[in-house]
Amino acid sequence: MKKTYRLLSFDFGASSGRAVLGTFDGETLQLQEIHRFQNDPVTVNGTMYWDILRLFFEVKQALIKSKGYGALDGIGVDTWGVDFGLLDADGRLLENPVHYRDARTAGMLEKAFKYLPKSEFYSITGNQFMEINTAFQLLSLRENRPALLDRAETLLLMPDLFNYLLTGKKCTEYSIASTTQLLDAKQRVWSKRVLSALELPERLFTEIVPTATKVGALQPDLCEELGLIPAEVIAVAGHDTQCAMASVPTDKEDFLFLSCGTWSLLGTELSEPIINTTAEACNVTNEGGYAGKASFLKNIIGLWLIQETRRQWQKEGENLSFAEMETLARAATPYRFFIDPDAPEFVPAGNIPRRVQEYCRKTGQPVPETKGEILRCIYDSLSLKYRYAVGQIETCTEKQYAALHIVGGGVKDTLLCQLTADALGKPVVAGPVEATVYGNLVLQLLALGAVKDLNEAREIVRRSDKVNTFTPNADAQVENAYKTFLEVNGLC
Q: Whole-angstrom Cα distance, residue 174 to residue 237?
């Protein structure tokens, strides 16, 4: 008789978190969400923080609820990338982790290139340059708050910080380390050259452990407080994108994927990173994954634009659902207005609809006036930016891909899936929605020895969930729209 495994997955997103119980019977994974909670940043005196103590309170509530389902075999935590907490010599958190959308990194990217030339920086880390990256957050601290760095003994990235709070053990999981722009992508160790150039103390950085490593059991005092049986905490892919990557339901070695949520991460999986002048010119990132694999991908602002638009309209008194917003977009005329989703003005929180209008005005386009027109502009622009990114990936890898796998919350947005298929001229295979959770759970199974390799893990996901395929429509408008999109946004 095969053993049944009970696993708890904590998945922290940029706006909410949840705990999902996974039950594995040897053939398929059954998912049951047992706890969901908000993850709202808090701005205090002009700085935007993550409310880490509230989030850990929610972790405890989920652990209490899990007792009703029997003893756990494993616990795994995945989060967004780049953000971190600093601990003092006694292991105490010095302050709440700062949100990557905080303004403290403004101007740090160009400043960093004065310490380390851009080409050398990329040749070491292989990371897409984004001001939110850990390296530039730390440079901001060194420039503006050196006393805080002097007091800090240890830096823990967000999933590693939660693992520490659960177990008392300090380590850094490989995939989350690869989001920092401080990792030597080829050697898979912290880069002494980058740390030295930016004058960052090496003592802050802990041992890097492979994805799917057992960290340790729940701390005894936590078990006593919550009435828990000790369970193994596993360093799954701490970066949620790499959890999603592990669950892509494909049996092919070469494939394209799009992890579509607040951010869109589009790329492919490789055995080794690609770090050359072409990849640098395309600003493609190399992230680490299970078994030392490299995810070669582009970070693109994703459903954040839709989410933040909805929040703005809610402030104005109109509470539209995402389904209603999709309906408005469908009714609007396609391919009339275009933005570059990754333009700097769309990164901060705020009035996205007004910024869309201002962007169209300053680029000499007609200005979208209705809600449907604003939404259609966002949808069309996202699908065409995906096409642009796919072209970059195919150029760098010198490969052509037959289809695109979309996983994550964006799977539920059928308009975006169809527009993406149309823009690419390739089928879009959509699903699973719960890709990050599936990936978290199969990585726990790999650590526990219940699954032998990644191919088997992906086969389990294929058996456990279904996918939908969107076939591209032959539409001459798409080609003309893509040319206009490139011209308007200076991407030619």
A: 8
**Which pLDDT does position 1 carry in this prediction?**
62
**DSSP code for 238:** S
Neighbours of 376 (CB within 10 A): 24
Task: Kindly tell me the burial class for residue 395, based on how many C-beta atoms sit within 10 Å of its own C-beta (0-12, 13-18, 19 or more).
Answer: middle
In order, the DSSP letters of 20-86 are: EEEEE-SS-EEEEEEEEEE---EEETTEEE--HHHHHHHHHHHHHHHGGG---SEEEEEB-SS-EEE
What's residue 133's pLDDT? 98
Alpha helices per DSSP H over 155-260? 158-167, 174-177, 192-197, 220-226, 240-246
Query: Three-class SS of residue 405?
Result: strand
Catalytic center residues: 240
Q: Which residues of the chain have pLDDT under 50?
A: none
**Residue 428, pLDDT score:** 98
CA distance 258 to 428: 10
Q: What is the DSSP string of 155-170?
A: EEEHHHHHHHHHHS--
Residue whose structure tokens are 């800090």: 152
- Nearest CA-CA partner of 407 in 384, 382, 380, 436: 436
**What tokens were used for 403?**
């289809």
Q: Report the predicted TM-score, pTM, of the whole model to 2 decimal places.
A: 0.94
Position 14 scores a pLDDT of: 86
Query: Burial code of 96-121, b = ≥16 C-beta within 10 A, e = fewer?
Result: bbbbbebebbeebbeebeeebeeeeb
Exposed, middle or buried: residue 330 (CB in 10 Å: 0-12, 13-18, 19+)? middle
